[in-house]
Specification:
The complex is a heterodimer of chains A (468) and B (516). With 468 residues, chain A is an alpha/beta fold. Chain A contains 15 helices and 15 strands. In chain A, the strands form 4 sheets. In chain A, strands 7-14-13-12-11-10-9-8 form an 8-stranded parallel sheet. Chain A has a two-stranded antiparallel ribbon with strand order 1-2. The two termini of chain A are 47 Å apart. Chain B folds into 2 domains: 66 residues, Alpha-Beta Plaits, CATH 3.30.70; 341 residues, TIM Barrel (Alpha-Beta Barrel). Chain B is built from 15 helices and 17 strands. The relative contact order of chain B is 0.15. The chains are: A alpha/beta (468), B alpha/beta (516). Strand 3 of chain A pairs antiparallel with strand 14 of chain B, so a sheet runs across the interface.
Chain lengths: 468, 516
């Protein structure tokens, strides 16, 4: 039996206490003092005892926000001296898209390697825009996956990054060619790239590359940033070059199995020269995910590119538009354009920008991506708070540039281990055991617009408020 | 006219204060040191905020949870204005900012605690029928009633009963007094006193509760006619006698909180008692697989039902499924396989621990599923032959009424029962020793925080209040029975489908930004 893909996670504690959500506030002046029923002694989570230890060691005040929200101290104190407050630092993390809850859950996954689990049902908003306006399907009674989630080792999450011949070709003698193009696969549908901010030292990028190597995926990096520190990851690294400068990096290109060249007029003319440097070299083209992306994708596909990497903005929106569309819609548009041209199966599409949670990876694939490229979640796994201080010249509150690479690498492996498990959960529920079959399988998804039209329009008529 | 049978009349509500000495309210009343103990506030307040027992020098600490706050300002008995020493103040309770979530807002929680305590709908200005989720039930309203439609009849003559057997087969009819029953919560995941308390409440309310997949503790036997035995994929605790005990047997194919994922009871919760009931090993995590490995077609499904029918000739059969895109086909298939009740559990509900990715993303919310299933069953000509039950994110009496108006015959409730028992929805059901508030825990100490009697009465009280709400809704539209409300989606409006002028006539839902 072939070896099954497995991600080895290991609990890797953060260097700094996580930014907590809530704290209890005491009106000490009303405390009865030495009360035999003191709620602090009874705290199920030992928050008060732990806080005392932090006070003794004069820790940073984050320990004040470890409250687990059971409210028993608030409701049981004989003098009623407790109330609660929200940690103002928690609210300030991230932005409208990268919400504090996403950051918090990413930290949890990077710490434990486990998927976030909670009780009491769903607690969030009904729906939203983009990926929040779709649900994934499940099967029951008829056509469920035979092994379900408990046969998870039989679910494949591998994707290809090499161009796929559409048919067998024969030589003049009617024989198959001696060598067929090599198929390049990665076992998870996610690649890495350094984020556009928050990289203070090479250690962070090395941690990302090391994790990519352990996970058997690939890491994109600007060729100008390639240094000797990455030589040990050469099969993992994908240098990013431009049509103007690639000749300066021939030695790096020759070390790599894949490169990404930035899109530019006539870039496809460079493909033969690039492949000439190293036979079998995979060529990806990176281009902005704008209104021209679908037609450009078609041109590049016809020109023989292996993989196309589309860059949305950090919040998963269209580039260069006054009213940008979300990644969900853009992926569908590109995918459909290639389907209509009967070329979708020849090329691989990966998307980056705004992939913040495991569900975004699964939903991107359902919408038509082969895989995704992530950046900011890697930084968050290294404890980034997305406070934005570094963008304005401030210092990093968690000194992210000073991490140990082994620690960082394990945190990222943990995060992807948790994402991988969540992808398996979604696929298991869908009854799909092969992530390549999930690609573009919109029949295994439920879109807000469709549900509103099919379920509500017959009752309520015409919507006057557009679906987000 | 249908009336509630005397022997099935709803029980009396009995005031049952919270287990916790400091209940949380919308307002905080503060009495400062200027108070001289004159007792004027106690004599004035009609809401019972201020109490000065005979012989006490000063009033007891204010019962803030009873304060109606700003609604009182114009009243002559407004304590803050009348206090001769200006010792009193009223303010919003800022702790509410740290409580609840988009679906169960702080006010909805507080209102349900009030209902569970008193059996009445809240007098305080609390928005308890709309959450901040921004969609689904929170976008729907009952249309503005026409005054001439109103019928002036008492709650006693309004029929809220629900027939579970509409097939007209040889099996007995079972009629519940409420259009709802309790969802499955297993022995092991939830404290024994809680699940037995639910069964006791179900008996008094003449409705039902469900074992979940944890076996059938002997404590259920006195209430056996009101306990559904669940047969789920792990078959934990399923024995011939537990099937024979039950008036209704529920096959759980999937559940809304984790559709397609099966179940998982953490090893910490597998105590010797739980292990004995489930015939497993102490401390070892228990997985309920997904799916039933014996069912891959409607024909297999029928085989399952026939098996139960053979073992218990009087049992009605319920099929609990989640809400996939082909929910309507599942419904029809289940009917033809022989089910009496088809129970759809939407994706936003659930009480137990589940992966967050599943709770948010897998399967459709129940609001979308109900009308499409209702319409499809009608088109197939079998709608009148099945009892269609909805659950998963039905939080309050108005949600339940909306679900019925969309096409369900009744609803299944889980979370609201737990909220009645002081659940605060912290979501930490699975962590460490389990629920810190003693609800979802089998811990030796935490699992005994609630008595059966307390659980029973609080739940009875909450449904008593809910029934009052249903009766008021029915009266407004000239209806005398919840059966008449089934499928009356013409009584609903959706804010996203109204023009601006029309939308302005309806109360907006709260739009709080919450930390969850």
């Amino acid at each position: 039996m072939p070896k099954k893909y497995h991600i080895e996670t290991k609990v890797t504690a953060p260097r700094f206490p996580a930014v907590g959500k809530f704290s209890t506030v005491e009106r000490r002046e009303d405390c009865a003092g030495s009360c035999s029923k003191c709620v602090k002694k009874k705290c199920v989570y030992n928050v008060f005892k732990d806080s005392y230890q932090h006070v003794i060691t004069m820790d940073e005040p984050e320990f004040l926000y470890l409250c687990q929200s059971c409210f028993r101290c608030v409701q049981e104190c004989t003098k009623g001296i407790f109330s609660r407050v929200v940690n103002p630092d928690y609210i300030l993390m991230g932005d409208e898209y990268w919400q504090p809850e996403i950051i918090n859950q990413t930290w949890f996954q990077a710490h434990t390697g486990r998927i976030p689990v909670s009780g009491a049902g769903y607690r969030g908003v009904f729906s939203g825009s983009g990926f929040d306006a779709m649900w994934t399907d499940m099967s029951e009674i008829v056509r469920p996956t035979r092994d379900g989630i408990h046969g998870r080792e039989y679910i494949s999450t591998s994707i290809e990054l090499s161009r796929k011949p559409m048919r067998l070709t024969f030589d003049d003698k009617g024989s198959l060619p001696k060598s067929l193009p090599e198929i390049t696969e990665i076992p998870i549908p996610v690649l890495f790239q350094p984020p556009s901010f928050g990289v203070f030292s090479e250690k962070e990028v090395v941690a990302m590359a090391s994790a990519a190597q352990r996970l058997q995926t690939l890491m994109l990096i600007d060729a100008k940033d390639y240094s000797s520190a990455f030589y040990c990851f050469d099969g993992t690294m994908v240098p990013r070059v431009t049509a103007r400068d690639y000749k300066e990096y021939v030695d790096i290109i020759c070390l790599s199995k894949m490169l990404e060249i930035a899109d530019a007029p006539g870039v496809e003319d460079e493909f033969p020269r690039l492949r000439g440097f190293k036979p079998g070299l995979l060529i990806a083209v990176g281009l902005p995910l704008d209104s021209k992306a679908p037609s450009r994708a078609l041109e590049l596909t016809i020109a023989g590119v292996d993989t196309i990497h589309f860059y949305a903005d950090d919040n998963g929106r269209e580039i260069g538009s006054g009213s940008p569309r979300p990644l969900r819609d853009l992926i569908r548009e590109v995918h459909k354009k290639l389907i209509d041209s009967k070329l979708r199966s020849t090329v691989n599409l990966v998307f980056s920008g705004g992939i913040a949670m495991a569900e975004h990876m699964a939903k991107s694939i359902i919408c038509g991506a082969d895989g995704v490229v992530i950046d900011i979640p890697l930084l968050v796994a290294l404890e980034c708070r997305l406070c934005g201080l570094c963008k304005t010249g401030g210092s990093c509150p968690v000194a992210i540039g000073e991490i140990e690479t082994a620690w960082g690498s394990q945190r990222i492996v943990n995060l992807i281990g948790a994402w991988h498990n969540q992808l398996l959960e979604v696929m298991g529920a869908c009854g799909i055991r092969e992530v390549r079959r999930l690609r573009g399988e919109v029949g295994r998804a439920l879109f807000l617009e469709d549900l509103e039209r099919e379920s509500f329009a017959p009752i309520f008529g015409r919507r006057t408020v557009p679906c987000e | 006219m249908n009336t509630v049978q005397p022997e099935k009349a709803l029980p009396e509500a009995v005031e049952t204060p919270s287990r916790f000495r400091n209940p949380i309210g919308k307002f905080v009343v503060t009495r400062n040191s200027r108070c001289t103990g004159c007792g004027l506030c106690a004599s004035l307040c009609p809401h019972g905020v201020h109490i000065k027992p005979e012989g006490y020098a000063k009033p007891l600490p204010p019962r803030s949870e009873r304060c109606v706050g700003t609604a009182c300002e114009k009243c002559e008995y407004y304590c803050v204005a009348r206090c001769p020493n200006k010792a009193l103040s009223v303010s919003f309770n800022s702790t509410l900012e740290t409580m609840g979530d988009y679906r169960w807002t702080p006010e909805m929680l507080i209102a349900h605690w009030h209902m569970a305590e008193t059996g009445n709908l809240p007098e305080v200005d609390l928005e308890y029928s709309l959450g901040s989720s921004g969609g689904g039930f929170d976008k729907m309203r009952f249309r503005t009633p026409v005054p001439s439609e109103y019928i002036k009849i008492s709650d006693e003559v309004i029929d809220t009963s629900l027939d579970l057997n509409r097939r007209g087969d040889e099996r007995p009819q079972k009629t519940l007094s409420l259009p709802c029953y309790g969802g499955g919560m297993s022995f092991g995941s939830t404290a024994l006193n809680v699940i037995v308390g639910r069964a006791r409440a179900a008996k008094r309310l003449n409705t039902m509760t469900c074992t979940g997949e944890g076996g059938y503790p002997p404590e259920f036997l006195p209430y056996a006619e009101h306990v559904i035995t669940q047969v789920a994929t792990g078959l934990f605790g399923v024995r011939e006698e537990t099937i024979q005990n039950a008036p209704v047997v529920e096959f759980k194919y999937a559940q809304g909180a984790k559709p397609g994922l099966g179940g998982h009871l953490l090893g910490d919760k597998v105590t010797p008692e739980v292990a004995a009931m489930r015939e497993t090993v102490v401390g070892s995590s228990l997985f309920s697989p997904f799916p039933f490995h014996s069912v891959y077609s409607v024909e297999d499904h029928k085989k399952h039902l026939d098996w139960i029918k053979e073992i218990n000739p009087r049992a009605l059969l319920s099929i609990k499924v989640s809400t996939p895109s082909d929910a309507d086909m599942v419904a029809v298939g289940s009917y033809y396989a022989g089910a009496h009740i088809i129970h759809f559990d939407g994706s936003y509900g659930g009480t137990g621990a589940a992966p967050d990715i599943a709770k948010k993303n897998i399967a459709m919310p129940i609001e979308y599923a109900i009308p499409r299933i209702h319409r499809f069953l009608k088109a197939e000509g079998v709608r009148e032959k099945v009892c269609l039950i909805a659950s998963g994110g039905i939080r309050n009496a108005v949600d339940a009424a909306k679900a019925i108006a969309l096409g369900a015959d009744g609803v299944v409730i889980g979370t609201a029962d737990l909220v009645a028992l002081d659940c605060i929805r912290c979501g930490k059901c699975e962590s460490g020793r389990g629920c810190a508030r003693g609800i979802a825990s089998t811990d030796a100490e935490l699992g005994r925080m609630i008595s059966e009697e307390y659980a029973e009465q609080r739940i009875v009280n909450m449904y008593t209040a809910w029934r009052k709400q249903w009766c008021e809704i029915l009266r407004q539209y000239g209806l005398r029975s919840t059966r008449e409300l089934v499928g009356r989606s013409d009584l609903l409006v959706n804010m996203d489908y109204l023009d601006e002028a029309e939308r302005a006539k309806y109360k907006p839902a709260p739009q709080n930004k919450l930390v969850i």
